[in-house]
Amino acid sequence: MEDQEMQLKVRRVSDKFTESMYVLANEPSVALYRLQEHVRRSLPELVQHKTDMQSWEEQSQGAIYSVEYACSAVKSMTNSSMYFKNIDGLLRQAISMKEQISISQGRSLHDVTPSPSPLVSAPHAPSTSSWPLD
Predict the structure, then answer these.
(1) Buried residues in 11-42 as b, exposed as e (16+ CB within 10 A)
(2) By three-state DSSP, how is residue 5 classified?
(3) What angle do CA 105, 110, 115 make, to 5 degrees?
C-alpha cells in the first residue's frame, strides 16, 4: 500500500511541478523577454536595411533629377529650332552683304576718278541679286 500511496504522491508532485513549469514558461514576462530577444537580434539588420533603402532613395532621386533635367534640355532644344532658322537667315544675309561690300570695294579700287573726300564715301545701293549659298 505504501507503494501505491507513494506513487500517487509522486504523481501529484510531478503533475504540480509540470503545471508550475508550464505556467512559468508561458508567463507574460517570459513572453516579453523572448520578444525583446527577438527584437535585439533582428533590429541591427532592420536598421541596416533602412540605411540601404535611404541611400538607394537618394541615388534614385539624383537619377530622377538628372533625367528630368535632360528631358527639359531636349524639349528646349526642340523649341529652339525657330531660333536656329533665324540665325541661319541672318548668317546668309550677312554673307550676302559681305560679298556685296567686297564687290563694291573691288569696283572702287578700279575707279580712276578720285572721290571728293577720302573720309566720305558715296552710299551704295544694295544689290537685288541673290547669291546661292548652298
Answers:
(1) eeeeeeeeeeeeeeeeeeeeeeeeeeeeeeee
(2) helix
(3) 75
SS (H, E, C) 38-79: HHHHHHHHHHHHHHHHHHHHHHHHHHHHHHHHHHHHHHHHHH
Q: pLDDT tens digits, residue range 5-51?
A: 889 989 999 999 898 888 877 777 877 888 899 999 999 999 999 99
Cα end-to-end distance, the chain, whole Å: 129
**What are 40's three cell numbers?**
535585439
pLDDT in tens, 54-97: 999 999 999 999 999 999 998 888 888 888 899 999 999 999 99
Between CA 37 and CA 33 the distance in angstroms is 6
pLDDT tier, 110 (very low <50, low <70, confident <90, very high otherwise)? low
Q: Please name the residue that has the C-alpha cell 572721290.
A: 115
Q: Grid coordinates 538628372 are at which residue?
A: 66
